[in-house]
Design the sequence.
């Protein structure tokens, strides 16, 4: 294992990984979906007759051909959705009468392979009468065209905190306002969505790259009308998820349903173009902010108004913007704060959690406003932040928008970021360039964030077990489901460390509902924090159980029996000692299983960026990116570092590159795939310096907070602030992400703030 | 997505290839590097009935100097031009500056220059260079060989003077003299994507005065363009002292030429993240900067000892 950084790397980096598409099952059929070419319309006719005649096609169905096909299950998890939002707004697995987003499936074709199924799909006749397609919340909010007849397009309203008193705005020394667009983003995992459903006797085995296998099992069993024990979900190697693989998608419903109906294995391996068209989106908020401060820069009030684009059906994304509202005030003490959410249905694919999931939106809104405030007050942006940080001695800290932060030392993270960046040196360089007419303008941007990890109340527990075999092998099982995070390395080391045995002896089993009957999964940066705590807990209980057994064997009081490095021995004279493997041979199987609950944790950090702008072309060059993140106690520094780096790159993607445009019919312009929707590639990745501070969380026994979403949350605002700082524009609202060259060029031509007359 | 079903032939000679293409009953496509064709077939935007793979035709990979022209055979890969020595003098330098903008090294090791001419994407670097330098395109059909001048060859996006039954066997470029300086600058959102705008320039300078100017515009219209009006404005102009192209003064002749290219020569089409106004502006800026680069290149060539102008 020496040459590999992580235990799973030997397999994953040498082509030995086994993904769903690698699983060969005899007689398996490939599913291909016929998708709507318009974003909104009335489905008039679907005819699959010609498709059925194509050689190698085994069947083709529209919704009308499958009257018993269940709808897509809704989930009301974690207050992210509610009954009222979903009532009357069914998401059919195949379109019945109304197309509500481009690419929505109107028919399915099963073929002996994907080539033949695609040939069949090309023969399906489909007629949709287009309706006006609304791809922004502002276009849909007035209900002039309704997605669901008789129901408003506004599917959810929420608020956090209390309205800020009028006197605050009136009497404040400074009030700044802003409007920020959080564009829709694609999660873009390397492996798109996958499902393989294999009927076996009266059971169905489902292989899927998925974050929540137990939820998938529960939802599939419910829609088949089966008991959950008849469905087994297995998650093999999975090539990334970023939040986008936790639902029972329409395609999954169809695949499971047809596999059972035909009694034959069926799989759907989503390709990149499909994924770009119909995989869930992240972000999607239009925000208005108002921030008040006194003359010394102390914040007095903050108001955040969110109009969220939740896509065509009210799934989890409908309440997701509440994550933004609850975290509205970030790391600052703000006496009065009020955040409101209006979630609007639009003719886009659904909004859903994507790495950061509500927290980037909160951070970007607040941190951009903080920079505008600093400029207004003539304060250094770092100083303004420092004056308002929640002090380290104030934790647990209850925010006006309803969160209770566990622990933090926000100033320490900012100080480390400034020191690492060499902030003063870059400010001097910036001043020099401002006097040199030939120099490109340079800006420095900061962003301080607090996020939440672990999940919401009701979802902060996990299930698992530890077992020792007669050969001394330790098997740990848990309900988590990795998609590339390195669980096999981290959790094996954690269990080995707790038991005091060699890591090689520990085997981790996860992502299989037959092996681990109950579980929640991997989402909300919860695995280290929640699952780690569980595995430590069951490992300690296993030690206790071994000591009790030995005590009975030796007829000693249990407190005279100790555990050390996988050996139980009598504490007093050390005469009796037995290895745990032998103990199992003598006393029978040794296995401890349990449920363990942690608290919510609030990771935080400060990111700093130096950007150079070519105002003539509008290009932005990141000269330096510094990320300082605090995720409490780090279980594996290399893995946390990799997570911080990767998410910072995705943060750069939101700030500079990623964005979608739509044609007149509400169809995203994505015909050339990743040539249309640009991700940062190796060439675009600037020097990123990843650092951390450590403030343990009291909410979980390990002291670990979630890691991995930090860059998506912290980096974008730092980049936008750096560009705004470079250009010194009077109206920073001109800079809306992604900061493509045309956007930056237009902003660069706008009036500078020095020229402003106040 | 997967390609639709197709037949596949591997001719060993040009006449065999032409014969395969000449089967009027079947819609045929030529496969050289496959840089664009394979992707388009996957997307089913192209559904050929027959793919004619020319990779086994001997001699098509030849790159040769014939008199004062460079002849690039149909199987010469992009990567060959990464070395400035691939072609004599400034032409090799121009190719080397341009080629690094084409996709990534693995793609450049398969894709071909002639394939770019065949595909005729408006954002093709080679096509704009060929247009600016008056390249000739050699095509073979059932009736034999004919030569089409670049200026007559491009008819629009993916549309050319090549007939479906014809095979392009080579593109010929005139060599550039050592009194010519070259520049190539591309502007795009990430290294991965197509150019929003790119400009190729060749300036021939004698005694400090521009005698000839050639400017190729990439993705500035529905086809590659030569910026004739901007070129004419440069003839007889003194190149003057070196300037930093990033902040070219408005009155500088290169800035002036840039504005002419943007307003009179270019006919840019709007794209996501680049409307016509932005594109015209970017064309003006890029033409100015590329001319600066070409003038600097010419100066440095002049400064080199004779005989070292490879």
Sequence:
């Amino acid at each position: 294992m020496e040459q590999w950084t992580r235990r799973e790397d030997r397999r994953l980096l040498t082509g030995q990984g086994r993904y769903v598409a690698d699983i060969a099952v005899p007689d398996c059929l490939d599913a291909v979906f016929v998708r709507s070419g318009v974003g909104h319309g009335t489905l008039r006719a679907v005819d699959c007759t010609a498709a059925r005649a194509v050689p190698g096609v085994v069947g083709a169905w529209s919704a009308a051909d499958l009257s018993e096909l269940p709808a897509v299950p809704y989930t009301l998890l974690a207050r992210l959705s509610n009954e009222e939002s979903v009532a009357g707004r069914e998401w059919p697995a195949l379109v019945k009468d109304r197309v509500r987003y481009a690419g929505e499936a109107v028919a399915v074709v099963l073929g002996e392979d994907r080539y033949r199924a695609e040939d069949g799909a090309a023969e399906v006749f489909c007629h949709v009468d287009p309706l006006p397609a609304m791809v922004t919340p502002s276009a849909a909010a007035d209900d002039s065209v309704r997605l669901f007849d008789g129901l408003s397009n506004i599917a959810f309203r929420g608020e956090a905190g209390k309205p800020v008193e009028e006197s605050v705005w009136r009497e404040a020394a400074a009030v700044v306002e802003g409007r920020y667009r959080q564009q829709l983003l694609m999660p873009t995992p390397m492996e798109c969505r996958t499902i393989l459903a294999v009927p076996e006797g009266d059971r169905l085995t489902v292989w899927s790259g998925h974050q929540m296998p137990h939820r998938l099992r529960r939802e599939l069993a419910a829609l088949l009308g089966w008991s959950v024990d008849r469905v087994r979900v297995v998650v093999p190697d999975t090539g990334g998820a970023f939040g986008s693989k936790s639902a029972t998608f329409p395609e999954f419903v169809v695949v499971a349903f047809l596999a059972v109906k035909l009694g034959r294995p069926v799989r759907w391996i989503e390709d990149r173009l499909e994924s770009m068209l119909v995989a869930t989106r992240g972000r999607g908020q239009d925000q208005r902010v108002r921030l008040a401060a006194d003359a010394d820069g102390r914040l007095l009030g903050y108001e955040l108004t969110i109009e969220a684009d939740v896509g065509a059906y009210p799934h989890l994304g409908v309440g997701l913007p509440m994550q933004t509202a609850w975290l509205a005030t970030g790391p600052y003490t703000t006496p009065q704060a009020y955040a409101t959410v209006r979630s609007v249905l639009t003719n886009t694919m659904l909004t859903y959690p994507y790495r950061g999931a509500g927290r980037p939106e909160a951070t970007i809104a607040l941190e951009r406003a903080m920079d505008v405030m600093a400029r207004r007050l003539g304060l250094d942006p770092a100083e303004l932040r420092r004056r308002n940080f929640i002090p380290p001695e104030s934790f647990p800290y209850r925010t006006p928008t309803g969160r209770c932060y566990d622990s933090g030392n926000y100033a320490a993270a900012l100080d480390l970021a400034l020191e690492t960046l060499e902030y003063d040196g870059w400010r001097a360089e910036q001043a020099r360039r401002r006097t040199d007419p030939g120099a490109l303008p340079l800006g420095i941007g900061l962003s301080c964030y607090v996020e939440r990890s672990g999940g919401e109340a009701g979802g902060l527990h996990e299930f698992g077990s530890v077992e020792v075999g007669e050969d001394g092998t330790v098997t740990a099982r848990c309900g988590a489901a990795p998609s590339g995070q390195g669980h096999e390395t981290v959790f094996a080391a954690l269990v080995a460390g707790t038991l005091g045995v060699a890591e090689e002896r520990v085997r981790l089993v996860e992502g299989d509902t037959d092996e681990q009957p109950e579980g929640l999964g991997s989402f909300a940066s919860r695995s280290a924090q929640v699952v780690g705590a569980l595995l430590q807990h069951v490992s300690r209980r296993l030690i206790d159980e071994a000591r009790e057994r030995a005590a009975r064997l030796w007829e000693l009081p249990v407190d005279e029996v100790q555990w050390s490095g996988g050996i139980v021995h009598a504490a007093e004279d050390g005469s009796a000692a037995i290895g745990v493997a032998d103990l199992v041979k003598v006393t029978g199987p040794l296995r401890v299983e349990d449920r363990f609950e942690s608290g919510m944790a609030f990771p935080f950090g400060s990111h700093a960026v130096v950007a150079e702008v070519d105002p003539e072309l509008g290009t932005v060059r990141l000269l330096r990116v510094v990320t300082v993140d605090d995720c409490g106690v780090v279980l594996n520094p290399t893995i946390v570092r990799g997570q911080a780096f990767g998410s910072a790159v995705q943060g750069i993607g939101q700030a500079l590159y990623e964005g979608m445009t739509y044609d007149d019919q509400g169809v995203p312009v994505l015909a050339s795939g990743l040539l249309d929707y640009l991700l940062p590639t190796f060439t675009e990745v600037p020097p990123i310096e990843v650092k951390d501070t450590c403030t343990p969380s009291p909410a979980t026994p390990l002291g670990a907070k979630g890691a991995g979403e930090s860059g998506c949350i912290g980096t974008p605002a730092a980049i936008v602030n750096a560009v705004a700082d470079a250009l010194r524009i009077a109206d920073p609202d001109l800079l809306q992400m992604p900061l493509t060259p045309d956007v930056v060029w237009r902003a660069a031509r706008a009036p500078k703030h020095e020229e402003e007359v106040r | 997505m997967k390609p639709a079903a197709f037949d596949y032939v591997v001719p060993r000679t040009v006449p065999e290839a032409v014969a395969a293409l000449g089967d009027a009953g079947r819609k045929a496509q030529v496969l050289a590097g496959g840089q664009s064709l394979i992707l388009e077939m996957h997307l089913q935007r192209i559904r050929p009935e027959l793919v004619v793979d020319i990779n086994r035709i001997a001699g098509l990979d030849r790159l040769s100097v014939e008199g004062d022209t460079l002849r690039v055979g149909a199987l010469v890969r992009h990567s060959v031009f990464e070395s400035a020595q691939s072609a004599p003098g400034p032409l090799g330098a121009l190719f080397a500056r341009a080629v690094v903008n084409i996709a990534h090294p693995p793609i450049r090791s398969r894709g071909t220059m002639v394939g770019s001419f065949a595909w005729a994407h408006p954002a093709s670097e080679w096509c704009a260079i060929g247009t600016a330098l008056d390249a000739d395109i050699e095509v073979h059909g059932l009736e034999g060989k004919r030569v089409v001048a670049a200026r007559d060859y491009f008819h629009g996006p993916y549309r050319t003077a090549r007939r479906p039954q014809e095979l392009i066997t080579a593109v010929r470029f005139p060599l550039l003299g050592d009194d010519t300086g070259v520049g190539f600058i591309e502007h795009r959102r990430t290294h991965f994507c197509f150019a929003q705008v790119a400009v190729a320039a060749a300036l021939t300078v004698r005694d400090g005065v521009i005698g000839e100017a050639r400017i190729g515009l990439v993705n500035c219209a529905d086809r590659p363009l030569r910026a004739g009006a901007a070129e004419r404005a440069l003839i007889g102009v003194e190149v003057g002292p070196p300037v930093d192209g990033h902040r070219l003064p408005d009155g500088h002749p290169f800035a002036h030429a840039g504005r002419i290219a943007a307003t009179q020569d270019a006919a840019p089409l709007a794209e996501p993240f680049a409307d016509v106004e932005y594109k015209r502006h970017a064309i003006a800026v890029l033409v100015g900067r590329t001319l600066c680069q070409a003038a600097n290149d010419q100066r440095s060539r002049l400064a080199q000892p004779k005989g070292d102008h490879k």
Summary: The mean pLDDT of chain A is 95. The interface with chain B takes residues 114-115, 118-119, 122, 271, 273, 437-438, 440, 614, 616-619, 657, 659, 661, 669, 671-672, 674-676, 678-681, 683-684, 740-742, 745-746 of chain A (CB under 8 Å). Chain A has three domains: 27-131+189-241+245-278, 282-453+600-755, 461-597.
